[in-house]
Amino acid sequence: MTRIPGTEDIEIKKSFEERYKSLLGMDYENFIEASLSFMRKSIRVNTLKISVENLKKRLDKEWELTEIPWCEEGFFIEHRKQERRDIGNLIEHSLGYFYVQEAASMIPPVVLEAKPYDAVLDMCSAPGSKTTQLAAMMKNKGAIVSNDSDYKRMAPLSLNLQRAGAINTVTTLMEGRFFKNPFDKILLDAPCSGTGTIRKSLKTLKMWNPDMVRRIAGTQRQLIETAFKCLKQGGIMTYSTCTLEPEENEGIIDFLLNKYDNAKLEKINLNIKHGPVIKEFDGQIYNKKVDKCLRIWPYQNDTCGFFVAKIKKE
Fold this sequence. Notes:
This protein is α/β, with parallel strands linked by helices. The protein has helices at 14-24, 28-35, 52-59, 91-94, 107-112, 129-137, 154-164, 203-207, 210-230, 250-259, 298-301; strands spanning 42-45, 63-67, 74-79, 98-100, 119-122, 143-148, 169-173, 183-189, 231-241, 263-266, 280-281, 284-285, 294-296, 306-313.
């Protein structure tokens, strides 16, 4: 991993350091080093428009693709002569042949396993990476409601859906907590404090504070409860965040499991390195079933940090 220039003397809040040292122990320095290092570029082939093999042939002359172990259509991408990083300017990107997507971000749709003809809700969907991934998995059959609550994010969402050729989608603008319709599958990639994405946005370190974490966790509890109520009997939902805060991850799943007896966590089996879940934090002991969740630290796979849970409504 190559460290981002200018981060040698970056200020880390004492409360942040204390919290993450308590969570990670000896691995704290690995976490900070990874969080202050350049992010590997990654793409996902859009199989609605091109096959994996054909895209590899188109890019092979200048770009080296390395398959992402947990997503068949995902690849880490690197210029063969180390001269370029502008993958968003490639004609193949403009044509919608691939989506520039962080590797760990591809996990929730893979875990959800949406099938053709499912009715799917992507509750917090902008800018559309996971919606377009779901559309490809569903082969443009069935229906996806791609929702977001911020009108400023609707333009990039709509543009990305159009470029990808995702025609089984409808976009909606509303707060996720107001949904009442039944769905077969629901993807809730919840708004979060983003501590897993420091390497993409260093300002996260400046913005972080425990009060913000507690406030966001309140919103997440509303969203996951609404999503579970909208889930059909026997349906599957994924809850995911790009934060590493226990209150926003294991704490939210603990809340749902304790409130709803028919919420069942499913085991996630992926070819990816991950750490143990947090079973106790800040005096609270979480439901022992949270150990079925996936907690990924940035240094384990050279990705962003991520958390994913797979929930079935019995």
